[in-house]
Amino acid sequence: MTAEKMPVLSPVPTYKTRQIEAGRMLFTRPITFMLGVATLEQLPTEDKVEICFAGRSNVGKSSLINALCSRKDLARTSNTPGRTQQLNFFDLDGAFNLVDLPGYGFAQAPKDVVRNWQGLIRFYLRGRVTLRRVFVLIDSRHGFMGADLEMMKMLDETGVSYQVVLTKADKLKKGQMDKRIAEVVTALKKHPAALNQIFATSSEKNTGIAELRAEVASLL
């Protein structure tokens, strides 16, 4: 059953208890690595809903995925930007595929390799009929940067629905975080494919993880 959000005034969505529980239960199910995709020919069959996570290199994407799934090492984390060099597909017990995109914006890799990643990402985002939502991760300490805006422009052009997730929220004081949220929500008004509600998360403190799980559950 599709979860219904409570009416909210805040740009950060809130959920009923049953929605939070549905999200929690969804992510207690086993999740396994399916495959890493480096070429178009390796893309798996479009046979279930896909939820995608995208973000700049070193934005904390792997840490967020691990926190969502209550796993320490499902998605590999690294202090080296650009470590993820493939589209990594994970199967959550047949319910949906979680897709971890290569970090964009900077990578410790040859330029031709980076171009191949970019082409693969564009093809995936433009042509995947089972793609239900892209969560675009933004470092809350910095807000939108040039590479983020390029990704969002591509999503706007292709009409792929996306939602911003602020990471590392524990690194800002409350007043700073409120200001950042307001800035992001205002900026999103210029992006037609962006949803106007965002998430403020911290993988380290588990902030916003339950709400993000609830949102994913609502998409199924």
UniProtKB/TrEMBL annotation:
- Which Gene Ontology terms describe the biological processes this protein takes part in? division septum assembly
PROSITE patterns per the record? G_ENGB (PS51706)
Task: Kindly list the organism's lineage.
Answer: Bacteria, Pseudomonadati, Pseudomonadota, Alphaproteobacteria, Rhodospirillales
Q: Which Gene3D superfamilies match?
A: P-loop containing nucleotide triphosphate hydrolases
Known function: Necessary for normal cell division and for the maintenance of normal septation.
The record's listing under Pfam families reads: MMR_HSR1
**Domain named EngB-type G: residues:** 47-220
What is a single cellular component term in the Gene Ontology annotation? cytosol
- Family affiliation: Belongs to the TRAFAC class TrmE-Era-EngA-EngB-Septin-like GTPase superfamily. EngB GTPase family.
Q: What is this protein called?
A: Probable GTP-binding protein EngB
Keywords attached to this entry: Cell cycle, Cell division, GTP-binding, Magnesium, Metal-binding, Nucleotide-binding, Septation
Q: Which organism is it from?
A: Thalassospira mesophila
What's the cofactor? Mg(2+)
Q: Which GO terms describe its molecular function?
A: GTP binding; metal ion binding
Gene name for this UniProt entry: engB
Spell out the InterPro entries in the cross-references: G_ENGB_dom, GTP-bd, GTP-bd_ribosome_bio_YsxC, P-loop_NTPase
